[in-house]
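Honest question from a wet-lab person: if I give you the sequences of every part of a complex, can you actually get the arrangement of the whole thing, not just the pieces? Trying it with mine:
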Amino acid sequence: MDALILFGLVLTFLFLGVPIAVSLGLSSVIVIATLSNQSMSSIALKLLESSHHYTLLAIPFFILASNFMSTGGVAARIIRFSVATVGSFRGGLAMAGVFACMLFAALSGSSPATVVAIGSIAIAGMRANGYTREFAAGVICNAGTLGILIPPSIVMVVYAAATDVSVGRMFLAGIVPGIVAGLMLMIAIYIVARIKNLPAQPWQGMMEIVRAGGSAFWGLLLVVIILGGIYGGVFTPTEAAAVAAIYAFWVALFVYRDMGPLKGHPWRKDDEGIHAMIGRNIWISLRCLPMTLFHADTRKVLVESARTTIMLMFIIANALLFAFVLTTEQIPQTITNWMLDMGFNWWTFLIVVNLLLLLGGQFMEPSGLLLIVAPVVFPIALKLGVDPIHLGIIMVVNMEIGMITPPIGLNLFVTSGVTGMNLVQVTRAALPWVGILLMFLVLVTYVPGLSTWLPYSLMGPETTGR
Amino acid sequence: MKSFENAVTAVEEAVLALLLAAMTLVTFFQVVARYVFHSGWLAALECTTTLFSWLVLFGISYGVKMGTHLGVDAFVRLLPRPVFRATAVFAALACILYAIILLNADWLKYLFGLETRGGAIDYWYRMYMIGIGLEDLRLPEFMMQLLGFRAETLPRWVAYIILPVGLALFALRCVQATWAILRGRRETIIAAHEGESLITDKTLLQD
Amino acid sequence: KCDKGEVVIKFSHVVAATGNPKGEAAQKLADRINKEMNGKACMEVYPNSQLYDDDKVLEAMLLGDVQLAAPSLSKFEKYTKTYRVFDLPFLFASMEQVRKFTGGPAGQKLLHAMDKVGFTGLDYWNNGLKQISAKKPLLTPSDAKGLKFRVQPSDVAVAMIRAMGASAQKMAFKEVYGALQTGVVDGQENSWSNIYSMKFFEVQDGVTETNHQLLNYLVVTSKPWLDGLKPDVRTQFLKILKEETEAGNASAEKINQEARAKIIAAGKKVRTLTAAQRAEWVKVMKPVWKKFEKDIGADVIEAAVAAGM
Ligand code: NA
Ligand code: NA
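Yes, you can. This is the full assembly:
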């Protein structure tokens, strides 16, 4: 009964246009005030506790890293490398768009950020080469969702925070499914390209792959730093995020120099000797070092990242409040007992989980939805023998689909922003490709090895729930 | 008035940028200290998480002002214009109610006889009365003495004050937003999804 | 869920409900209270930090929203410093000594060290003595030189690690396994049951049986809440708690010994110290006692030492 009131309140507030965070928070607060003997002081305490959660600390750092990367011209270099690699297939530019999204996903923890970074350049390029606007937008909008499946991933961080599984294992678990999803999209594009007779780019030779790869190298090195650092024992995942942010800052301002005080200073001037070049670069780097910290470009990235962090963390903190109310009212236990009594097994249970998440993903923001669903679903899953890491990947894939379905679909919003198409047009363009992701969801759900093989062979089984 | 509002925004943004930069640098140098020098600052963890809570709780009011809090507007936009405006006012009032109940819920007891008590102010006040410190975070000795803190570490009430203050600022910004919606100078309290301004609004671009 | 009219006792802790001495003791306590005090009182147990972490649970207790908790004694550092006695390295040589000290007048007096803040200690729940492990064999303090150890957040533990010439790192408990595995930290120190249940031994070069420090919990409640209970309810509640404490402490010792045996069975080396090696550890740690003597009170330390004679 309490559960119905709680969920009813949230939905009512949501549909009346109350911010997601406040819908969750206000419903929790009302239920606490009317149905429970908890004091409001301890609810306030809980709000504070979730806003200094150690695992969630990775979120602002990954956002910051991603913003330095997308502002700092890494995306353009990644796209050039992708076109050189797969562009010569039929439908090659679209495939290169998917490949570029996969690569950028390995630098960024977010899906919409991936769409913006790659989409703003790739969609224009595709249109100039004879693709329709709908086709281009649909492909990128979908491929961008890989941002949260291929590590690093903010949604995985949130899942780890909600269930206490290890962030490191979750990150590893996303790699194989991420590659599979990318390949599935590329194969679908190839088939469509054959039927519709879409153009191919001329093969530019191995040298262009090497050259383009070299120019994207400093950006792609971040992948090695994040994963290598976590598994090599240099830092924890949260610290990895902070190191990524500092590294991205360094690459954007000092290496690529697309922003900040060194902008416009070439690495090598015409007819400059090698010694003169090294000396000049060291000199300007040192001279500009203090300025980079306070430069308008740096401040802009910091403020934008802070804004996103606040928006996201406000939702997360209130979703945690909501989950706390669920716990104190013992709602997860009730649902667990009911489901076990109904005789669900892992197979049928995962169908229910998928339907629940797909439905929820229609009007909730991913992190918030995950935090509400996880406390209910996680204990049941463990009882039915579902692997906690596998469950996490299933949830992430559901969140991906939620991002490209209206009314709240963050990727739809940004694709509409990038292309100037309205929400209805974008939704229609994305729709055919959602089918691929749904097929992929079934694959991920019923082939657990896809998610668990890599993390368990490198790090051993997850300790939580053992 | 306009320039005053701009100055306030500039200060808010400077504070947010500073908090985020400080969090990142502290965490980064902790890694360097441990990995390179086999040492570290024991309070680093607590310092970062405290800065994090300040960033979030100080920032939520700024989020209202900039209209970055995410919500569902697909349904309300289908409604006739006057009804749509009414829901926008309702949503803004809901935000004010949320903040006020969390600040203090005692009035619910007196008005409606609900069994509830306390709130953020009460929580903060009790920490103030007990005066206990955080786990590790401390200021230099002379500053602790100058400020008259008796605990060994920074008192919790100093770190926690952002909770009532942040909620109060949030309520204040929501009152302003409600007024703006009533006057027709603002559409809704949530982030707008339609329109091409999105490409410049990086806030939605994450997650 | 509790019926109307019953006194609600919320017990919030941070460990698993099964397989951990504290988690199991909490559940047994709840079962008995719900059976024997049905109609008068009702206890809800929230394991796994479902409600609050160890730090916030004490704040929530002050606010009156949690009635029982059992944080480790080092968590009370900000409320009273006398409990540092339990953290002193190589003070307790056996659980027998711990029992004699906590059951004696000095130990019982310590239960009331935080009455002024609003907490009353009800009983001590034992986990066990702690052992140390690292990525290499540790037999003398100098073996640990230059290594990085994850420690429980307490000033005494940090001082102990530093006395070994090693560096102390703070880290959330659940991150320790991964950190040991990847080498973010080199070693850890904990009780047998924790080393076994968290699988730390898997990623370490054996465990050294140092018994260097005590891991104990204090069952704590809010003083105003306890004082406000009806006398008969309070008496029955305290009686059940006392009986369950004794049963729980006995089984904690068993769980720890079983964990030790399982670690050996898993093929890991458990090293014991010779008398000479132990003397070397004690010599290095004595300055740590001196450092905290003022916080604890010399008489309290003396009582603890006397309990071992
Ligand atoms: Na990613
Ligand atoms: Na959606």
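Two things worth pointing out. Residues A 361-362, 402, 405, 408-409 surround sodium ion (ligand 2) (CB under 6 Å). The mean pLDDT of chain A is 87.
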